[in-house]
Amino acid sequence: MLPPRLSAAPDALCAEPGDCLAVREVLARIGDKWSLLVVGQLAEGPRRFSELRRAVDGVSQRMLTLTLRGLERDGLVVRTVEASVPPRVDYALTPAGRTLLDPVRALVTWAETHRTAITAARQTFDAGQAGRGAPALPREDAA
C-alpha cells in the first residue's frame, strides 16, 4: 500500500491537491535541459561563467545566461561580482541549491544503473515501430 501522499489520486505526488501548479513550476526549473547540469558543475564550488560554459557541453552563451538567471531567481544560485578589471563574476550554489545535490546524485545513479535496460527497451520499441508508418486515420466515407 502506498503512503497517503502517494495515493492513486490525480495529484498523487502533491501534498495538497492545489499544490501541483507550484510543484510543476519548481520541477520545470530544475528539470529543464541545462539546470541540473549547471547545478552539478557548481557542486564543487564557485565557478566563473566561462568555466561553466566550457564544462556544460552544448550550452550556448544565451541559454547558460538564462539558466543561471532562473536558478538565481529561484534562490538556488548566487551571483557574486568582484570589483576588478575586468570584473570577476562567480556563481555558486546557495544552501537551498546545495540541497539539490543528493537528489541529483540519486537520479544520476538511477540513470547509470538503468541505461542499458532503457537502451534495449528503446531498440525493441523502435524495431516494433519500423514499417508501421503513421497511424491510419479513419476514412470519412467509412460508416
**What is the CA-based Rg, rounded?**
21 Å
Order of H and E elements: HHEHHEEHH
Strand percentage lies at: 5-15%
Largest sheet: 3 strands, antiparallel
**Number of H/I helices:** 6
Shape category = globular
- Provide the structure class: mainly alpha
Task: Bin the helical content.
Answer: 40-55%
Q: Report the average pLDDT across residues.
A: 85
The number of distinct β-strands equals 3
Straight-line N-to-C gap: 46 Å
Biggest sheet strand line-up: 1-3-2
Low-pLDDT regions: 1-10
Explain the overall architecture.
- By secondary structure, this protein is mainly α.
- 50% of the residues lie in helices and 10% in strands.
- It contains six helices and three strands, in the order H-H-E-H-H-E-E-H-H.
- It has a three-stranded antiparallel β-sheet.
- The longest helix has 29 residues, at 101-129.
- It is globular.
- It starts with 19 loop residues before the first helix and ends in a 14-residue tail after the last helix.
SSE inventory with pairings:
Elements: H1 20-30, H2 35-42, E1 47-48, H3 49-55, H4 61-73, E2 77-82, E3 88-93, H5 95-98, H6 101-129
Antiparallel strand pairs: 1-3, 2-3
Summed up, what is this model?
The protein has 143 residues and is mainly α. The protein contains six helices and three strands; from the N terminus they run ααβααββαα. Strand 2 and strand 3 form a beta hairpin.
